[in-house]
Amino acid sequence: MSNVIYFKQTSITSLLHHWIAQETTPETVNWLDRKREEISSCGISRDFFTAFSAVSRHIGKNQLNLAPKDLKAASALKNGWVPSHWSVDQAARTLFLLALPQDNAERYLHTLEQVFATADVGELVALYQALPLLPYPERLQKFAAEGVRSNMTAVFNAIALRNPYPAHYLDTLAWNQMVLKALFVGSPLHFIHGLDFRANRELARMLIDYVHERQSANRSVPAGIWRLVGKFADAGILVDLQRAIADPDPIQQAAAALACADCPLPQAQILLASYPNLQKFIDTKSLTWKSLSPQL
Asked: Is 218 left (phi over 0), alpha (psi -120 to 50) or beta?
């Protein structure tokens, strides 16, 4: 399929359907299409909940085999949507959610509440991954907040990582709590969409407190933290950055240097200048948060 033809598939549902068809049999696709039609025409009924639960048995759990052009198409349709880790059953469940009649907001949201209330872990992961694609996104905040509070790491990661919904709809308090929890459970910060534009002074203060707790316990500090504190650094935080940039770990050094480059304080630029090699890498764009992310 040429790129020209591919990008004419301009709907989320057509993309999902195309990806599933690549990984399943024609018989499976026929079952999927038949159930989508029933859900679309009959609306909210026992058939929807039965089909939603039966997806794995009929579709399987293979990973979607997405090429760069697939991810580009996804991002073009929904900014920040990165389904590189999605499986066929997750894609199929999303299609079922999108097939529900959407003309009545209260009815649609009530159905979502029922699905969330009865879902197993695998179904919850699919639900949270689908949030940015569903209608009435401004009214889905309570679902996202529940996912952030989950004590199941797979469920938490489904809403927190590679998911654009939190960055666009969570309030500052919920956002900050999500980032902090990601650190506690060991989830990589660089997979959180909108990390830079949602950075804030209160979060920086919370993260520095976390840094001090780790240091007091003689535990390592995740280098990704410095990405979120540099632009809000004060004299106290500069002391922490000075310690980090002098760390023998090159990842800590690089992250602290980037944080200094982000900081508007003259003292931060003086500190960075005392490490000319790091400053050179930053000035030439060979060291950026993006280039450093796979190592964080």
From this structure: left
Burial of residue 281 (number of CB atoms within 10 Å: 0-12, 13-18, 19+): middle
Residues 6+ apart with CB under 8 A from 295: 251
Instruction: Answer whether residue 195 is part of any domain.
Output: no
Same domain, 149 and 40: yes
Supply the range of the domain harboring residue 255: 201-295
- Interatomic CA distance for residues 205 and 211, integer angstroms: 10
Total-model pTM: 0.90
Inter-residue contact 17 to 89 (CB < 8 Å): no
Shared-domain flag, residues 104 and 223: no
Same domain, 268 and 151: no
What 3 state SS string does 97-143 have? HHHCCCCCHHHHHHHHHHHHHHCCHHHHHHHHHHHHHCCCHHHCHHH
121 and 248 both lie in a single domain: no
Written as tens digits, the pLDDT of the chain (296 aa) is 434 333 334 599 999 999 999 999 999 999 999 999 999 887 566 789 999 999 999 999 999 999 999 999 999 999 999 999 999 999 999 999 999 999 999 999 999 999 999 999 999 999 999 999 999 999 999 999 999 999 999 999 999 999 999 999 999 999 999 999 999 999 999 999 999 999 999 999 999 999 999 999 999 999 999 999 999 999 999 999 999 999 999 999 999 999 999 999 999 999 999 999 999 999 999 999 999 998 88
With respect to residue 226, please indicate whether it lies within any of the assigned structural domains.
yes
Is 159 among the domain residues?
A: yes
Question: Does residue 137 sit in the same domain as residue 45?
Answer: yes
- Total of domains in the chain: 2
